[in-house]
Design brief:
CATH superfamily of the largest domain: Intergrase catalytic core
Strand order of the largest sheet: 3-4-5
CATH class of the largest domain: Mainly Alpha
Largest sheet: 3 strands, antiparallel
Strand content: 5-15%
Helix content: 40-55%
Shape: globular
CATH architecture of the largest domain: Orthogonal Bundle
Length: 356
């Protein structure tokens, strides 16, 4: 069986519920990730039968995928797409080959020899996406606000910076997930990363509420009104949108990358807005427990990172208060008559206490 055929069977099994084979339905976001992984695997294994794949193929895949040799992704709109080379880190490569292993196990093609010979790449802890500094944040917002083509990104950013929503949580928002009367916005339950991230967040920032109003109005103009209509609908063709589907990651990425380059922060990633929001709260001294509750469940590494920022901010505030605050007056020394303080020592403490 060729790899593409086995991959199609693998994906089809995860798109339906099949109790007999113990295959469970996966969330849409997980299914999209499977599709992305299979697409990358297909660029290397598409001409191979599963029984032809050996440990040498796995090692070659690791090397070429890390260098981007022969791997491409589509960038741009449908009518002007470009193919660009793309590489990956150890974590992504291991995840892709783990999926290949699942496909081969399902087809009974994963052998003990492959199990013994396959060595995953050593993963290095990835850094938390870099957050914008206060000045960089203000400049980025001003840049998106100044360009009419990026106006929706300006509104998007205002919401993300207040809610701490990730890029996937933002792009999958629906009109029905927003309650302006109660000032609450909820993560789309079908796309939350995990049960901790499927949360509702209170809104108390006027700029965020205004931005949500603009985004709802924009969505209604594009796809009509309805609780299931997405705030950022999927583009079918010029001027035509599908409100039942959300914009793709690549659809959001191109205008964002153009805006960040204009704002002179080329290193900034779309999901960095979430971490910028959390960083601002930590800098302002918001308790870590409240930050983590608002942002949803996070890793111990992230908790430690933002705890460190919060403590730094607390220390700076204390130092400023210590320097600028009034100098405390020393308490007056109590004089006790009849005591020779020059000869007074610790041995005399008991006698002194008794004398009082």
């Amino acid at each position: 069986m060729l790899f593409p055929e086995a991959a199609d069977i693998f994906l089809a099994a995860r798109a339906t519920i099949n109790v007999q084979s113990r295959i469970q339905y996966v969330a849409p976001r997980t299914y999209e990730q499977y599709e992305d992984v299979v697409r990358m695997l297909g660029q290397f294994f598409r001409h191979l039968r599963l029984d032809q794949i050996d440990a040498g193929h796995l090692r070659t895949y690791q090397k070429r995928r890390a260098n981007g040799d022969g791997f491409i992704r589509r960038v741009g709109k449908h009518n002007a797409q470009q193919m660009v080379a793309t590489s990956a880190g150890a974590s992504s490569i291991n995840r892709e080959l783990a999926t290949l292993k699942q496909i081969m196990i399902a087809a009974q093609a994963w052998t003990p020899q492959l199990q013994a010979m396959y060595i995953p790449l050593q993963e290095v802890d990835s850094d938390i996406p870099k957050a914008l500094g206060p000045d960089e944040q203000a400049h980025f917002l001003a840049t998106t606000k100044a360009n009419p083509d990026w106006e929706f990104l300006y509104w998007y950013s205002l919401v993300a910076l207040h809610t701490t929503f990730s890029s996937d949580e933002m792009r999958t928002l629906r009109q029905g997930d927003i309650n302006l009367a109660q000032q609450i916005v909820s993560v789309n339950r079908r796309h939350g990363k995990n049960r901790h991230r499927r949360r509702s967040v209170d809104l108390f920032d006027g700029s965020c509420l205004w931005a949500l109003e603009q985004l709802i109005e924009r969505s209604v103009e594009m796809v009509g009104r309805g609780p299931q209509r997405h705030l950022f609908p999927f583009r079918i063709s010029t001027g035509h949108y599908d409100g039942e589907r959300s914009i793709t990651r690549t659809g959001m990425r191109k205008p964002f990358e153009a805006a960040r380059d204009k704002a002179e922060v080329p290193w900034f990633c779309l999901n960095g807005l979430r971490h910028t929001a959390i960083t601002r709260m930590a800098e302002e001294g918001v308790p870590i427990a409240i930050i983590m509750s608002r942002a949803g469940h996070t890793s111990p590494k992230m908790t430690a990172h933002y705890t460190h920022i919060s403590r730094q901010a607390e220390r700076i505030a204390l130092e400023r208060g210590w320097v600028r605050g009034p100098v405390a007056q020393a308490a007056p020394v109590r004089r006790v008559r009849g005591i020779d303080w020059q000869s007074f020592d610790r041995a005399s403490c008991a006698d002194f206490a008794a004398a009082r």
